[in-house]
Amino acid sequence: MLKSIKTSVVALILVGGAVIAHAQKKIAEGTITYGLEYKLTDEQKAAMGGQEPPAELKVKFNNGLTKIEMEQGPALIGIVSDNNEKTGLLLIDVPIAQKQFAVKQSKEDVEKAMGGIAKYSDFKATGEKQTVGGYNAEKYTFKDDKGASHELWATKDVELPNVGSQNYFPGLGAFPVKYTMVQRGIETTTTLKSISEGKVGAISKDVPTGYEVVTMDELMKMQGGGE
């Protein structure tokens, strides 16, 4: 019944969402839009059963809470993150099967998911500049904890307090607008498209009425254990 919901895609977005969903301008409510590009191996494409991960993500934010909504096969998926408490909630609605599931993510669950991401340091501005997402951006070089060199683009045109990306790019001193990360073995390039201010309504981290609370392991078993 859930075999069309590929856990690999959901897990990718859970981790990717945790990285980007902390982005928060000084405004109280708004929407951040990102473009996503993936470098997938043939094996990874096969694991996703022909489903394409989303090329764009819209992240709604309201006072420390964020929500990503997306469709995957017959399912409607919502990912809620509490950036203050570092917890999350995955909501899966399968209308055709009249089933609704919720997976709670504790602080430990989120930390475990983040554990697979490399630690970055030694950021250096290069002076090379371009416009990304409507903001003036500069290229920075940096290294990971294995000594490998990388680069990203970041802007100082906007001040975004409590930005989650600062947890992954400590010492950068700017807001990343284009960067590449490897999550669960999948290389993803995230590019900021826009940050818009506007009412998005209340974002609740409570399990909605009618949803069955399950663990991620139980969700995987429902789809035959496939990732």
Keyword list:
single chain; alpha+beta; twelve-stranded mixed sheet; 5 helices; 45% strand; globular
Chain-wise SSE layout:
Blueprint: H1 7-20, E1 29-39, H2 42-47, E2 56-62, E3 65-72, E4 75-82, E5 87-94, E6 99-105, H3 107-114, E7 120-132, E8 135-144, E9 149-155, H4 165-168, E10 175-183, E11 186-197, E12 212-213, H5 216-222
Parallel strand pairs: 6-12
Antiparallel strand pairs: 1-2, 1-11, 2-3, 3-4, 4-5, 5-6, 7-8, 8-9, 9-10, 10-11
Measure the end-to-end span.
Answer: 14 Å
Return the average pLDDT rounded to an integer: 79
Q: Roughly what percent helix? A: 10-25%
Into which percentage range does the β-strand content fall?
35-45%
Low-confidence stretches: 20-25
Q: Using only CA atoms, what is the Rg?
A: 18 Å
Shape: globular
By secondary-structure content and strand pairing, the structural class works out as alpha+beta
Secondary-structure element series: HEHEEEEEHEEEHEEEH
